Amino acid sequence: EPLGLVGEVFQSSVADSCHVTITVSLNLDLLTVLLFSLPDWRLLWSHEPRFIRQFSHGPPPRTPFCPFSLHPEPFSFDISFWTGPSWEEKKFYAAIREASLGTVEQVQLMDTFSHPDLSQTSYCYRLTYHSHTHALSHTQALTFHKHLELLLSSRLQVTIR
Predict the structure, then answer these.
(1) Which residue among 7, 47, 98, 114 is buried most deeply as judged by most CB within 10 Å?
(2) How does residue 37 score in pLDDT terms, banded at 50, 70 and 90?
């Protein structure tokens, strides 16, 4: 039986006694897999924070498991630079796609500042690097980010801060 076994262990040897001892063995791993629709029982023994977070508050019964990418968490880096009056945001996004090989998942404008005397504008963006096709390491994400800085300086004539 996949969920467990029920079996008689022994019967009392005393003739006047009708006591029977029964053991019950439940496969709690399989029961949990079925209850929460887990794709693999080995997740139960994982130390993966994204898995643990889903069950840390004790979900209500029958809450199915929400799958996550098996690849590492995303990495975020900020980039700040000064631009001139000929700044084109579309070229900035094209440079991001080229430099990161499509691993930038999110681009968020954090801050802008226009200098009153220099007619320059400073932008600060937060880029989130994440891959859904392969494991992206922190070193790889940082390499992509450094490549983006070089690309922005050379092609868009911005001054990295």
Answers:
(1) 98
(2) confident
What is the residue whose two structure tokens read 């859904």? Answer: 132
Summarize pLDDT for 103-161 with one digit per residue, the tens. Answer: 999 999 999 999 888 889 999 999 999 987 788 889 999 999 999 999 999 999 899 99
What whole-number distance in Å separates Cα of residue 13 and Cα of residue 17?
8
Q: Can you tell me the mean pLDDT for 71-99?
A: 91
Cβ atoms of 146 and 79 within 8 Å: the answer is: no
- Distances 43 to 22, 35, 53, 129 between C-alpha atoms, Å: 32, 14, 13, 25
Residue 94 DSSP symbol: H
List of domains in the chain: 4-55 (no CATH), 75-160 (3.30.70.380)
Residue entry with tokens 């467990």: 4
Residue in 161, 158, 144, 160 with CA at minimum distance from that of residue 89: 158
Is pTM beyond 0.70? Reply is no
CA 151 vs CA 23, 59, 63, 124, 142: distances in Å: 69, 47, 47, 16, 14
Structure tokens that stand for 113 in this block: 């500042």
Looking at the DSSP bridge assignments, the partners of residue 5 are 25
